[in-house]
Amino acid sequence: MTPADALRLGRVSNLPTVWSNVLAGLVLAGAPLLDARTAPLLLALSLMYVGGMYLNDAFDAAIDARERPERPIPAGRVRRSTVFTLGFGMLALALALLAWLGLGFDGGTGAWPALGGAALAATIVAYDAWHKTNPLSPVVMGLCRVLVYVTAGLCFVAPVPSLLLVAAGVLLCYLIGLTYVAKQENLGRVRNLWPLAFLAVPVIYGLTAGIERLPTALYWLAFTAWMLVALWFIRRRAPGDVPRAVVSLIAGISLFDALVIAAAGAPGLALLAVAAFALTLALQRLVAGT
Description:
Shape: globular
Number of strands: 0
Strand content: under 5%
Largest sheet: none
Structural class: mainly alpha
Radius of gyration: 18 Å
Helix content: over 70%
Oligomer: single chain
């Protein structure tokens, strides 16, 4: 397996959206950012993401052989068994790191990070194994990102505060809409538009949070404008527009994180999530984001 194939299998261009998810989870949990646990937490949840992407290709190898024969496994550049081993290995390493974060640090929250990680790993595997035939797969994918928020928070406080759970619920709605669009990518069109109504939830959330806070309102404007750009691609339906909408909405995850961080009273830290958004867009030019 070449380095290019390793990066492509892991969709590593989207990793900054995971980092901004972690940042949002920490801010919403009231956790310190400059803490010895932050770096291993970022590593653990990055491994969860990349491992999940590897497993996605491994489980989808037969379908990709028909629909995307250029992917590394059907093209014969890497064995399916190797990708399975690497994917599950990354999930296992991530769980070990999370257990260490909970049990190996003063002030740790015990088994809670590992439990959050186990729920995340199980949800990732469930999505990868059954998403093609599961009509609720957008919900399952959304739960993966929800559990990133929750697991990050559980590394510092248990149970996590209601502020985090509310933001995670709004993120779930955004991911349902995003994943529904992504499932139509090979068709080059979106057959039903009603699932896109879920994308209105974060817009309403941000509008409510930004009514009396100018910094939050500015982040809401940026997030909403970017989402409208993605929806315009869907409406235009020119060749390649659905994939463009998908990668745009994926990058927009970090703008949503910036919005919730600002709404939590940390507009300065929200700029880090905006930087993650810009980095995602830059990396998507080098490594395909879908």
